[in-house]
Design a protein that fits this description.
This protein is α+β, with helices and mostly antiparallel strands. It has a single domain (3-121), classed as 4'-phosphopantetheinyl transferase domain (Ribosomal Protein L22, Chain A, Alpha-Beta Complex), CATH 3.90.470.20. The chain has 5 helices and 5 strands, in the order βααααββαββ. It has helices at residues 11-20, 24-28, 31-37, 44-60, 89-98, and strands at 3-10, 73-77, 83-87, 102-109, 113-121.
């Protein structure tokens, strides 16, 4: 195990950020993530959970915000329904530099909070 990261996001606050800065979702999330979130009337909770996963990934690698492009960390749904990370470009390079070969992810949200925990593993 290389590291563990966890993050908690206030959904109302995140919703306000999305409303105040509409282009931020395009910078932080891949089109597939936005499309998944937009399947529900209020996508803020799904996006907040994915944002928490992105921050938890950074923390699991010992990095802070700005350590990579957040859109390069993609949260996808595995065939069996569990969440999975898919890393691209800057995120893939950071994971390789840290020696991380696999990540375990759990995400959840209530009406008010989104939470994610990521464990970075080396083979």
């Amino acid at each position: 195990m290389l590291g563990i990261g966890t993050d908690l996001v206030d959904i109302d606050r995140f919703r306000a950020v999305l409303a105040r800065t509409p282009g931020i979702a395009d910078r932080m999330f891949r089109p597939e993530e936005r499309a998944y979130a937009e399947k529900v009337a209020d996508p803020a909770a799904r996006l907040a959970a994915r944002f928490a996963a992105k921050e938890a990934t950074l923390k699991s690698l010992g990095l802070g915000l700005g350590g990579m492009n957040l859109a390069d960390i993609e949260v996808v749904k595995h065939d069996d329904g569990r969440p999975e990370l898919r890393l691209h470009d800057t995120a893939a390079a950071a994971a390789e530099a840290a020696g991380a070969t696999r990540f375990l992810l759990t995400i959840s949200h209530t009406d008010s909070l989104a939470q994610a925990t990521v464990v970075a593993l080396a083979s």
